[in-house]
Amino acid sequence: MPEVRVVGDGIESKIYPIAEALELAEEQGLDLVMISEKAVPPVCRVVEYKKFLYEQKKREKELKAKQQKVVVKEIRFGPQTDDHDFDFKKKHARSFLEEGSKLKAYVFFKGRSIIFKDQGEILLLRLAQELEDVGKVEQLPKLEGKRMIMMMAPKK
Question: With a threshold of 0.90, does the pTM exceed it?
Answer without folding.
Answer: no
